[in-house]
Amino acid sequence: MWLMANHYIPTITFAENPVWFVLAIILLPIWSAFHFYWVHRLLHVPFFYKHFHILHHRNVNIGPWSGVSMHPVEHFLYLSTFAIHWIVPSHPIHLFFHVIYQGPGAAMSHTGYEELLIKDKPRLALGTFYHQLHHRYYECNYGNQEMPWDRWFGTFHDGSNEGTQSTKERRRKMYQG
Asked: Which of 18, 47, 83, 86 sits 20 to 30 Å CA-CA off 165?
């Protein structure tokens, strides 16, 4: 915010560029998911896993606190998604939206529950079986379900026996040499 207020990074206003202003709100969750996928893959490189990410994966039976149980280096990498605002022109509203979107994401994806039910109707997606599979098998489902990065990059596990075998084979290949 200080960088924006002091004109050290590019900013926009709705009046200057209404199309980009609205488009940025739509694109920020896509950017955030893309960034998370690749940072998470990086954290599974043996060096980073051994020194930083292993702390998070000690939580096999996940809950909300396990979502934010990270080494400081992992927190730094996870939150580096906000650096996009240093490069791409944005407005403080975009930054606030990005922080609110990103902030509770880790805790919510680790609740251990699929969704919040109110009067037996799903009202809010919470933790997912998708991410629970990641904590069980490690080398799959690095991203989130909002974007198909895992499907596109061959790291998707759907919970089936075939998915388990595919994940085990990918892990064996990763660590055999």
From this structure: 47
